[in-house]
Design brief:
Blueprint lengths: L1 H63 L5 E4 L2 E5 L5 E2 L1 E5 L2 E4 L1 H8 L12 E7 L4 E8 L2 E8 L2 E8 L2 E3 L2
Antiparallel strand pairs: 1-2, 2-3, 4-5, 6-7, 7-8, 8-9, 9-10
Length: 166
């Protein structure tokens, strides 16, 4: 008789533990859904900062090493603007070249490709070797906007119509 009493207690304890674990999993999933947009926005800001840091390091290399015309990075030729900002060119016609936004993102995110590079959609707003703009879209409404205009480079992160600030 006592054996049945203990097995009943063990079974009810097991049931309580299962309910407790399921409740904790449900709370974790509910909280994650609430935090996910903020986590993604933060990752986008980090990606923009990493791209900016890489571009600044390449410009610093250009300045320190006598303003070379180009640099080879991972078998990729990286040219420089007249002000030292990096650009990767591709030939679109026999005599015409334009900025290769995808290759530029790969160079600027080198070593950090797992952040967004797999889901990268690239849109080029305009391109010349002195002024260019690449828009990188990652998910619905999330984008990085890299532009060089009048010798100044900027990389902005945005979600929807809202620009994210670091």
């Amino acid at each position: 008789m006592q054996r049945d009493r203990w097995s009943h207690i063990t079974f009810s304890s097991f049931g309580v533990w299962i309910c407790l674990i399921l409740a904790l999993i449900a709370i974790l999933l509910w909280q994650w859904r609430r935090l996910e947009p903020e986590v993604e926005s933060t990752a986008l800001i980090v990606a923009a900062k990493q791209m900016t840091d890489s571009a600044n390091k390449l410009k610093q290399y250009w300045l320190v090493n006598g303003q070379p015309e180009f640099l080879m990075i991972e078998q990729q030729r990286v040219d420089f603007t007249a002000n030292g900002w990096p650009l990767v060119l591709k030939t679109v016609k026999p005599a015409a070249k334009q900025v290769d936004c995808y290759a530029l993102a790969s160079v600027l995110m080198a070593g950090k490709k797992s952040i967004f590079i797999d889901d990268l959609n690239v849109f080029m707003a305009n391109s010349s070797t002195t002024n260019y703009r690449c828009i990188y879209s990652f998910d619905v409404g999330k984008s990085l906007d890299l532009s060089i205009k009048s010798g100044t480079m900027s990389i902005r992160a945005s979600v929807g119509n809202r620009e994210l600030t670091p």
